[in-house]
Specification:
Structural class of chain A: alpha/beta
Number of strands of chain A: 17
Distance between the termini of chain A: 29 Å
Strand order of the largest sheet of chain A: 4-15-14-13-12
Mean pLDDT of chain A: 94
Largest interface: A-B, 42 and 42 residues
Oligomer: homodimer
CATH topology of the largest domain in chain A: TIM Barrel
Low-confidence stretches of chain A: 387-400
CATH superfamily of the largest domain in chain A: Queuine tRNA-ribosyltransferase-like
Number of helices of chain A: 16
Radius of gyration of chain A: 20 Å
Helix content of chain A: 40-55%
CATH architecture of the largest domain in chain A: Alpha-Beta Barrel
Strand content of chain A: 15-25%
Shape of chain A: globular
């Protein structure tokens, strides 16, 4: 069995961007990588075959969700997560820390862990750093995350510090509990929006010697500039030769910006969730395919796009499917958005290797009309207050992890 | 362009069953055939590619639905229905007569046609035999149905007779209005559950010289024996050399029984609708995959089945998807059920050609546990009264057309 390792293939001379390869027991993952989110052992609306077609290499699943349904013992009995969901490429499991803090009810945090009530049936459960590692060992992903404490945004400095220090102690307990060979346990950095905390978190977690690192607690409603400042504070303190995951961040405009700040791995429900709402990503920004202007538009969603949606169907047909709430529409939109993000990541990697990343970043951002911060923050606000309709079980604070 | 024709390849010596081929401008359809129902220009949850994989040859779309959304002019502008939905094999459009009588509100029937309010937005519309043919010419299917009047079950003899005679006059008007070369307009028989009316309808419609015939108004709540008696009354009066479609009927136990009575073509939403409810067809009958007994069942839904669902996923995984209301589950179940019905039809055809159909019918019905009439009729009753939850836009009376 291949054990986990990371190699750097190229480094951008003008930024902290790097191109690499993560080696795992289930195959190689070229980085920077975007991983589609398969919260409940399925990337919503698409099949494993379709994920292979959009050239996904690594996908994320969620320990909190799989612990509740169908139960990690069920997944283990069925031969582990890869076999259960028929995905033979690498998988990363998030710890469920974020979900305990965003979805579950009646949380009680203690040094031991966190007690919560299931959002599914109200039953009470306790997650400890050790029990979460054990659950993730049963699921059998290639990369796993330890239990962390996620704080809301904004968060007072003293509470952010307290939660961060608990997260550090939990990280050490997770590290000691972890046994499964071949599986890599990452360390998670916290620290809210405070550069002093972010720096301390990076130093503390780095000192524990994890094979990879994840930056948590960002894109939860703070301005983009704050997120960038936090990355600039903590990423340089992480060891160069280990991969870095930015948890729950992945809007198209975030990706090159975070890569430029040294991030190698991304996951985010944004692209797949907005797809199910009829919002499609194109090089110019976002398109709402339900708009009347597409009623008789024979063109593909994105001209020149090689995804099966664009190769097979018109904007008019997609609009019709969304107007009629036909399930095929959700899938076709998801396939396109995943293809868009994965192509973007391949292009970013190629341009890093070509020594041309900074130019690419400018080109991309000149063309791509990002959603303005004002709109984005208002959305995050409404989502936190439960006023923005979210669907399924991947509803989250902020962009979503 | 190939024009429409039908050839008989083999006839069963012990029943009215026959094997044939329908030739259409978009290719050949071996019969007996089951056609998946793509009401709104999409067979719910599956892609055209998946339809090709289950070897669908002919699919059905619905004029009522497409007239309301996106509008037949939109479909025409986009190059017709085949191109719009990216399906290059034969298509049949139902007239929408059944939907006007089952879905629309405020129906007013006159000799001219039927005025109704859209179930989507309450807008008022008039369907005449001529306007429906014109709409179907714009959609451009290979086989089209004329506007008919569908009566509820049970229905008094005098009203069934009146509606049938109007249906006959409308059929003649549709025949005169129809112009599109290559497209075949079928004649629809009605007559409720009265053998005298069914015979008169067959004689009258047959005399009009349509290239194919459809039997309407069955499987709307009547016992199976009544349906069989109606087929026995009308089918022998139809010309041998023309194909015969039994509208809206297609539970597994209905198919061999109707083939034995001379039916060549079937459409029904049953298999795809029950799939979305977690009910899967297997040689022994129906399986509700949500049952707890499948929680740790590593076997495919049907052992030995060659569909992509059974080749790729366990019962445990399917159950998990349904428990979590994951959209992929709806698709995997639909693929399996379509594969089941289409395989059954291929087997029926092979056994007719082999001169062995009657033996097959016995084998199949011995093994397959059909849903008892009592349960089926109670379901139809509740559905009529709106007490059985139905989904999407293909809710219907009875099994559904």
């Amino acid at each position: 069995m291949t054990t986990f390792s990371f190699e750097i293939v190229a480094e951008d001379p003008h930024s902290a961007a790097r191109a690499g390869v993560i080696h795992t027991p289930h195959g190689d993952v070229p980085t920077p990588v975007f991983m589609p989110v398969g919260t409940q052992a399925t990337v919503k609306t698409v099949s494993p075959e379709e994920l292979r077609r959009v050239e996904a290499t690594l996908i994320l699943a969620n320990t909190y969700h799989l612990y509740l349904r169908p139960g990690v013992d069920v997944v283990a009995d069925m031969g582990g997560l890869h076999r259960f969901m028929n995905w033979d490429r690498p998988i990363l499991t998030d710890s469920g820390g974020f979900q305990v803090f965003s979805l579950a009810a009646n949380r009680r945090i203690s040094e031991e862990g966190v007690t919560f009530r299931s959002h599914v049936d109200g039953s009470e459960h306790l997650f400890t750093p050790e029990s979460v590692v054990e659950a993730e060992e049963q699921l059998g992903a290639d990369i796993i995350m330890p239990l962390d404490e996620c704080v809301p945004y904004p968060c007072p400095h003293d509470y952010a510090e307290e939660a961060m220090e608990r997260t550090h102690r939990w990280a050490e307990r997770a590290r000691r509990a972890h046994r499964l060979p071949g599986q890599a346990l990452f360390g998670i950095l916290q620290g809210s929006t405070y550069t002093d905390l972010r720096r301390r978190s990076a130093e503390t977690i780095a000192a524990m010697g994890f094979p990879g690192f994840a930056v948590g607690g960002l894109s939860v409603g703070e301005p983009k500039e704050t997120m960038h400042a936090m990355l600039e504070a903590c990423v340089p303190l992480l060891p160069r030769e280990r991969p870095r995951h930015l948890l729950g961040v992945g809007s198209p405009e975030d990706l090159p910006a975070a890569v430029a700040r040294g991030i190698d791995m991304f996951d985010c429900v944004l692209a797949t969730r907005i797809a199910r709402n009829g919002t499609l990503l194109v090089p110019e920004g976002r398109v709402n395919i339900r708009n009347a202007q597409y009623t008789r538009d024979p063109r593909p969603v994105e001209e020149g796009c090689t995804c099966t949606t664009c190769q097979s169907f018109s904007r008019a047909y997609l609009r019709h499917l969304f107007q009629c709430r036909e399930i095929l529409g959700l899938r076709l939109a998801t396939i396109h958005n995943l293809h868009f993000l994965l192509s973007l990541m391949r292009e970013i990697r190629a341009r890093i290797v070509a020594g041309d990343f900074t130019a690419f970043q400018k080109e991309f951002l000149t063309r791509f009309q990002a959603v303005p911060d004002k709109v984005r923050l208002a959305e995050a606000q409404r989502r936190r207050q439960g006023r923005l309709r979210t669907r399924g079980s991947d509803r989250v604070l902020g962009q979503g992890r």
